[in-house]
Amino acid sequence: MLIESVSKLLTDNKLTIATAESCTGGLLGHMLTSISGSSAYYDRGIISYTNEAKQELLGVPKDLLEQYGAVSEQVAASMAKGVRKLAQTDLGVSTTGIAGPTGETIDKPVGLVYIGVSSKEKTLVKRFEFQGSRLENKDLTCIEALNLIKQMIQQNL
């Protein structure tokens, strides 16, 4: 199972992680803590649903939010870096997107999601366009976030 694989990689490599979630509303943190012993690697999760929360809790610059919007590569990167620095963990992971069924714009359809993973050495952001229901989009976002975490660890951060 994917979460068991990620948990083992985090544990075996003695890595810590924190989450900054918007569109997933804490679901990624729930998945990461569903494994017994997760306290060895999981530090904290911040649900920063509003732009104000992203600024206040994660240090996302207001100008990034105004220029690119909350659902953007730039904000996902800033969220992941922000939570990693705040928690002083090895990795920070972020999710921001439009889970649906409402909230789309001309440029940003329902299902558009950005996932960021940040280490001290680099920050990786991936863009996805899911086609499911709100809950399916949230689940898919978490699965892809776990895949991205796994990829970062396997590439030695």
SSE layout and pairings?
Blueprint: H1 2-12, E1 17-21, H2 27-32, E2 42-47, H3 51-58, H4 62-68, H5 73-87, E3 91-97, E4 112-118, E5 123-129, H6 134-154
Parallel strand pairs: 1-2, 1-3
Antiparallel strand pairs: 3-4, 4-5
Helix pairs in contact: 1-6
Characterize this entry briefly.
The chain is of the alpha/beta class and 157 residues long. The chain is 43% helix and 20% strand.
Descriptive overview:
By secondary structure, this protein is α/β, with parallel strands linked by helices. The chain has a single domain, classed as CinA-like (Maf protein, Alpha-Beta Complex), CATH 3.90.950. The protein contains six helices and five strands. It has a five-stranded mixed β-sheet, sandwiched between helices. Strand 4 and strand 5 form a beta hairpin. The mean pLDDT is 96.
The domain count comes to 1
Helix content: 40-55%
Q: What name does CATH use for the topology?
A: Maf protein
Number of strands: 5
| CATH architecture type | Alpha-Beta Complex
Proportion of β residues? Answer: 15-25%
Largest pleated sheet: 5 strands, mixed
CATH class: Alpha Beta
Largest sheet strand order: 2-1-3-4-5
Mean pLDDT: 96
Number of discrete helical segments: 6
Structural class label: alpha/beta
Offer a few descriptive terms.
alpha/beta; five-stranded mixed β-sheet; 6 helices; Maf protein; globular; 157 residues
